[in-house]
Amino acid sequence: MTSSGIAPSADRAYFAAFLDLRGKPGLVVGGGPVAALKAEAMLRSGVRLTVVAPELCARLSELTLVGALRHEAKRFQPGDLVGAEIVIAATDDPAVNESVSNAAKALRIPVNVADNAQLSTFIMPSVLDRPPLQIAISTAGASPVLARKLRSMIEALVPFAFGRLAALAARFRAASKRRYADSEARRRFWEDAIDGAVGEMVLSGREAQAAETLQRMLAPGASAQAPQGMVYLVGGGPGNPDLLTLRALQVMQRADVVLYDHLVAPQIVDLARRDAERVYVGKESDRHALRQEEINALMVRLAKEGKRVLRLKGGDPYIFGRGGEEIESLAAQGVPFEVVPGITAASGMAAYAGIPLTHRDYAHSCVFVTGHLKDGSLSLNWDVLARPRQTVVIYMGVRGLPQLCEQLVAHGLPASTPAALIERATLPRQRVVAGTLATLPALAARESLRPPALAIVGEVVKLRDKLGWYRPGALDQEAPADHSNVART
Ligand code: SAH
């Protein structure tokens, strides 16, 4: 215990700091790829860099050629350190590294030796860069791999726009000091701005509006802003939680209320913020928990109460998802919104069933249609669908499948055209039934495939024998094991 009462812990003896090295002379000793990484990190911080090494790797030569650094083609000598404010040794010769370290320590120049904490007076953290925001991670050399892993975990959760938010805050820092002399009041002001409308605007790509809002909030006599809600219309993908986008995950963790559809898997809804309110708004074919107009009105009301509303839909919100209608009603009411695309069922199915949607040899175009029956029949433009070298994907097509196959043949597609039905694509219980336009309806009926399922028609279906890779877990009781054309793939 020191007299200050603060004891340095055995596990943690480094002092974390960010050095301002812009325009300062720095030295890298070594010319290989590791030296190149260190050199690049220094250059990004604005160091005036010299590299001492008999020879350079391709990357360092390139940086020398474009004038980013100065190369001294020689072996290191202690005199090279004169004037340097920082030095990194990254040669593959331990003796050279050690002599750099000794010379630097004698001159009190901060020194780092790659992969050697003993010889270093500072270590380099793993850095997540969202300029001007930087997040540095260190395990005090215990496990660089762990530090990098942590960095990629944080990377997934920190929106790129956080950097822009920091830059915006920097622009208004002086103004905020003039407006709030008291540092406590200033802190509260920034908390409100960043947690509230301003932060929301920057994160959803409305920076100009965010700047105007800050300006208004900082104007003399301005009072605190009422909280402003917004709606995120988010595509939750085809069901497998790993196929969510980073943006979807980020906004899910900010939402106050989640309105979700029947198609969104419980594991995905679970990824929303723990204390977010969850509202099931349904839509399982004809059983609607709430009518569309009621959903629209609910979103508007919640957003106007200042809530961050997450409207979570299966697949992509703008593909047979009525997302357009929902956004129209928000726009009409002046409610701010952001739309986050999702992987549509057709893309998920294509990847997980091994059926590319287009292919130079088989299909030059791809059409998505809905096979939803209106008054018991399908109303589709058959002439456009029954074309050669085209893939047709049918959403909501389980019930209409017999009619669909019949009509495509009636309009000119050969009855032998490959066709498949894929149930629960991308999920552990994915099932694929493949046949032709002539055989598929009977096969699907025999296996009693149920929604959600997609039908796909076209020569590309044949490719699944070669391109299928997804082998979901153990077969369960209801697995149809004895049919060669039914595959759990
Ligand atoms: N917006 C969604 C589609 C909504 S319509 C999207 O972009 O994917 C609902 C239909 O999507 C279902 O009837 C089914 O045809 C299809 N679908 C959604 N998820 C599916 C899945 N995991 N497997 C197969 N089909 C799926």
Describe it.
The protein is an alpha/beta fold. It folds into four domains: 25-124, Rossmann fold, CATH 3.40.50; 161-217; 230-343, Tetrapyrrole methylase, N-terminal domain (Cobalt-precorrin-4 Transmethylase, domain 1); 353-487, 2-Layer Sandwich (Methyltransferase, Cobalt-precorrin-4 Transmethylase, Domain 2). It is 34% helix and 18% strand. The protein is built from 18 helices and 18 strands. It has helices at 33-44, 58-65, 94-106, 144-157, 161-171, 173-179, 183-195, 197-203, 207-218, 246-252, 266-269, 292-304, 323-332, 345-353, 382-385, 401-410, 440-446, 464-467, and strands at residues 25-29, 48-52, 70-72, 86-89, 111-113, 126-130, 133-137, 230-235, 257-261, 277-282, 308-313, 337-340, 365-370, 390-395, 418-423, 431-436, 453-457, 486-487. A six-stranded mixed beta sheet has the order 13-14-17-15-16-18, sandwiched between helices. A five-stranded parallel beta sheet has the order 3-2-1-4-5, with helices on both faces. Strand 15 (418-423) and strand 16 form a beta hairpin. The chain starts with 24 loop residues before the first strand and ends with a strand. Mean pLDDT is 90; it is low at 474-484. The structure holds S-adenosyl-L-homocysteine. S-adenosyl-L-homocysteine binds at residues 238-239, 263, 313-316, 319-321, 344-345, 349, 395-396, 422, 424-427, 451-454.
